[in-house]
Design a protein that fits this description.
By secondary structure, this protein is an alpha+beta fold. 24% of the residues lie in helices and 22% in strands. The chain binds iron/sulfur cluster (SF4).
Length: 63
């Protein structure tokens, strides 16, 4: 499973970081970094939840 962010849509509000901090991180200059674009199996449910919860629909999943 792979996850990606559209940086033009992401508003860096940190919702995904709160739900899956092992996979998403916000830098000091408010840019979202995906720490694990190839999502580990143990993080899959958290990442799916984060993708559904992004208020800007900036995240996409490839199963
Ligand atoms: S939840 Fe969506 S808008 Fe918020 S930081 Fe994550 S990708 Fe960006």
């Amino acid at each position: 499973m792979r996850v990606a962010v559209d940086p033009l849509v992401c508003e860096a509000n940190g919702v995904c970081v709160g739900l899956a901090p092992e996979v998403f991180d916000l830098s000091d200059d408010d840019e979202l970094t995906i720490l694990a674009p190839d999502v580990p199996a143990a993080e899959a449910d958290r990442v799916r939840h984060a993708v559904r919860s992004c208020p800007k629909a900036a995240l996409t999943l490839e199963e």
